Amino acid sequence: MMNLYGAQHHILVHSNAIDAEAHQHTFIQVTIALENHFQFEVQGEIISTAGIVLNSNVTHRLQGSGQPLVLLLIDSTSSIAAAFKQYMGKQAYANLPPVDSKKVAEFIKVRLPQIHDAECYSLFLQEFMTLFQLDYTPPAITDTRIKELIQHMKDCTDSEHSIRNYAEQFGLSSSRLSHLFKENTGISLSGYLVLHKLQKACYLIFQGTSITEAAVAAGFDTPSHFANTSKRLLGMTAKDIRKDSVFLQVSSLH
């Protein structure tokens, strides 16, 4: 069984089938074991851990198949990522102390099943951050153009996700729109679009759409592009995602 939670600056995955080959990505990654330690390879070093925070662009491999894990992939430009970067310092990764790992795991096991909407998830996330002794306050969106853009992407019915086209709709340059988006949301527009496309494809698959059609509709160049993105970021193929999975959109921006 796998549950995916799609938020504006991250994806949270709860699964016992996460097993990714060696790779790296631009996201901050937080991985928590809910039962036993798991094997995590970082830059060639194999670590046995119950919880780890990984910096962006660090080569790693996660061997967690068969045991329940929670994985967060966080846009590295977001305010929540900045908090975890502060937690890591200048290190490539930071292991959670056993006591903290157990406390976080127990919290997740109790609270995660209770989430059914964006408001519940927002409270869950803030309490989750508190367990790491990190401050996180969601940014307030004040620019009506950014509010309109986010609503447009939420309601999108086509596969076009070009920053240039979005910018032209508001009479702005691509760089100006990207700056306004980051200023209002705390995340990069390009990072948001990657998560948006991945979440949209997953949602369509869970609605019964074929993997090929879902990939194209979400804006991926080809089905293999979606498959590679899914495997690289989530550690699972599109076929793996389709098996006995549930997707919940919990973005407060949405």
From TrEMBL:
Pfam families reported for this sequence: HTH_18
Domain HTH araC/xylS-type, first and last residues per copy: 147-244
InterPro entries assigned to the protein according to its UniProt record, in alphabetical order: Homeodomain-like_sf, HTH_AraC
Alphabetized SMART domains for the sequence: HTH_ARAC
Sorted UniProt keywords: DNA-binding, Transcription, Transcription regulation
Organism superkingdom: Bacteria
GO molecular function (one): DNA-binding transcription factor activity
Keyword tRNA processing: no
Protein name, entry field: Helix-turn-helix transcriptional regulator
